[in-house]
Specification:
The chain is built from no helices and 6 strands. The protein is mainly β.
């Protein structure tokens, strides 16, 4: 996300320790994966983490705030995915209302 001018300091992300975790079974391969959900004070889901048995992960977290450097955009959420050796991330943007 550095290419967009965003940094971790641009928004307040929930920490992995703050998620509520459970195991789920992948019906395609029969293996289990770990999934965690972040919820706000009202219990509404605001993000999730998924750690697969093959070492891949996916994280999505709602941000819902104006873009810090480009007022044409609004940050809806951030996503990250990959493995411990390769992590990619992106911000999900929507046009800011006029």
């Amino acid at each position: 996300m550095r290419k967009t001018g965003l940094s971790a300091e641009s928004f307040n992300l929930k920490q992995p320790k703050d998620a509520i975790y459970r195991l789920e079974k992948d019906l395609s391969n029969g293996k289990y994966y770990l999934i965690g959900d972040w919820r706000d004070d009202k219990g509404i889901k605001i993000g999730s983490l998924q750690f697969n048995s093959d070492g891949h992960f996916f994280v999505e977290q709602d941000i819902i705030q104006p873009h810090p450097t480009d007022k044409r955009w609004f940050i809806e959420a951030v996503n990250a995915w990959g493995t411990k050796n390769m992590i990619k991330s992106e911000a999900r943007l929507i046009e800011a209302p006029e």
